[in-house]
């Protein structure tokens, strides 16, 4: 697929998503979702755990829909879908893949929060689910450092410690300007930047989920292009929300990374391969 798509003195800039693009998160966020579902089913709902409900297939299927950029909302959606059936067995309650596809195909442009509440009610509050997910992700010690609060539920090392950088190139060593558009909140991004050795990355060149700008909105891409004074973004992402953001922007190039967007024509297994093949790094 070798195709050099930038001229180093032109109007190009690079914009990266974080999860499974800059950082390998296969062993963090999917495990946070799985663990939170198991915990809520057993300790909050007092029901029977008779299976490991959440799988990679669930994760990749749901990430194929642009409304689910936020991984914690995946946990909230699935636990409420299962709980709405009023069956003690997790195995019998948890939605199957084909059911999920049928449900999400009808979602359209509706807001995820309103949609889940309308369809399933809110047996498990979103705020509770998100707090549990954050505690699992950060771990007991780091949750307290980040939030200044004691964790309410989880007493464990953080799943973020399982993450690994996908590239070794420093942001300053790219031949064109670099930005980040991610669903992570700023504190989560700081952990990723530390893993990458990008602690000095300019904060104004990162658009995070807690800014109020979230994918699939193109606004994050537009702002970054303006701040970098460039007209042609190349956006590297791993999920449908990333691809849709670029489509909504209406210009630039999207490059898919990883396994979720399996049918996308310009797709690479990992970021390092993409950057080398596209002539961006040696």
Q: Could you characterize what this model shows?
A:
The chain has 282 residues and is α/β, with parallel strands linked by helices. Helix content is 42%, strand content 10%. The protein is built from eleven helices and eight strands. The strands form two sheets. The protein has a six-stranded parallel sheet. Strand 4 (178-181), helix 8 (186-196) and strand 5 (206-207) form a beta-alpha-beta unit. Helix 1 runs parallel beside helix 3 and helix 1 (29-44) packs across helix 7 (126-147). The longest helix is centred in the middle third of the chain and has 22 residues, at 126-147. The relative contact order is 0.18.
Q: Would you kindly provide a brief summary of this structure?
A:
This protein has 11 helices and 8 strands.
């Amino acid at each position: 697929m070798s195709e050099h798509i930038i001229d180093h003195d032109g109007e190009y800039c690079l914009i990266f998503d974080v999860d499974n693009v800059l950082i390998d998160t296969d062993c963090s966020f999917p495990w946070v979702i799985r663990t939170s579902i198991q915990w809520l089913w057993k300790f909050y709902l007092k029901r029977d755990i008779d299976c490991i409900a959440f799988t990679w297939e669930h994760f990749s299927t749901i990430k194929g829909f642009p409304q689910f950029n936020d991984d914690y909302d995946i946990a909230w959606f699935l636990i409420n879908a299962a709980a709405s059936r009023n069956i003690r067995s997790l195995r019998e309650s948890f939605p199957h893949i084909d059911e999920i596809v049928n449900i999400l195909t009808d979602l359209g442009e509706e807001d995820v929060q309103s949609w889940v509440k309308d369809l399933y009610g809110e047996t498990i509050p979103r705020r509770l689910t998100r707090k549990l997910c954050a505690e699992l992700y950060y771990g007991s010690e780091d949750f307290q450092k980040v939030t200044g609060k004691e964790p309410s539920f989880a007493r464990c090392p953080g799943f973020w410690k399982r993450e690994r950088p996908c590239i070794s190139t420093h942001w300053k060593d790219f031949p064109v300007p670099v930005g980040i558009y991610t669903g992570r909140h700023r504190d989560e991004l700081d952990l990723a930047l530390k893993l990458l050795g990008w602690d000095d990355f300019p904060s104004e060149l990162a658009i995070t989920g807690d800014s109020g700008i979230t994918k699939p909105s193109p606004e994050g891409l537009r702002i970054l292009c303006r701040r970098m004074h460039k007209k042609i973004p190349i956006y590297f992402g791993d999920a449908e929300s990333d691809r849709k953001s670029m489509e909504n922007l209406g210009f630039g190039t999207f490059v898919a990374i990883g396994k979720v967007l399996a049918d996308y024509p310009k797709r690479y297994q990992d970021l390092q391969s993409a950057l080398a093949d596209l002539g961006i790094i040696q």
